[in-house]
Hints:
This protein has helices at 3-25, 69-78, 91-95, 105-108, 116-120, 243-246, 251-261, 271-281. The chain is mainly alpha-helical. It has 2 domains: 3-149, no CATH class; 228-285, no CATH class. It starts with a helix and ends with a helix.
Amino acid sequence: xxxxxxxxxxxCFALCLSITASAREGRELILPNTLHVPGPxxxxxELIGCITCHMDPDGGEEDDPMLNPFGERxxxxxxxxxxxxxxxxxxxxxxxxTDGDGFSNGTELGDPDGVLLHxxxxxxxxxxxxxxxxxxxxxxxxxxxxxxxISNPGDASSVPPGGGNTPTPTPTNTTEAPTATPTATSTxxxxxxxxxxxxxxxPSPTNTNTEAPTATxxxxxxxxxxxxxxxxxxxxxxxxxxxVDDGKIDQKDYLMHLKNARPKNExxxxxxxxxxxxxxxxxxx
Length: 285
């Protein structure tokens, strides 16, 4: 084998390693705020954020990636596709607590519901987040305004500020010693003589015969039958009163009376007399 052939083989091998490594190195760009995940710094600045999925800040080796619990869960989702762009971040992974520290992955990465990263890049929140050409480094997905609030979802010892195990305070015995019950002092006084009441005679009632008033029956006069304003004639209401249609005596009926009286040269009743007469005639008086 000549030197030229050896060089080609070595170059191809290096290229394959480079492609494989770069595939893994791109997954920190599909997660929110990996730039601020705490941990030891990697030797290569381009590997910042790898500590999110790996126990080794440099990402581990190809045959031993040293995945932490969060990295193992990501590996299950992408099924070792070998593509750095394979999506896996969304509401489901955000709601899980892969390291079992009591805080969800979304809470530790500053995206509690797994939708803030989607919203930052105008992507549908009900789908997995897709890496775009606008994302080239971890700083591009650093969407939080509070870097100190970010913790590692793959490390149970890394929790958000204020989290962790809070010692349970020892209860303080607040039971007071019983106090002696004071002895009751007799306050009964000797009885005093009760004065004898003097009987006061009750006067006998005087019977006064009061005659019951005799009720006087006052005859009630029957209502006067309306009279016609024309002497000698008994008015008869017209049969075409509007009351036949609407069931009430009103001004419309009286106007009909005036209208019917004119062609017969009859004298119309005054409104008061006509309403009394009409009510009496219809049986509602």
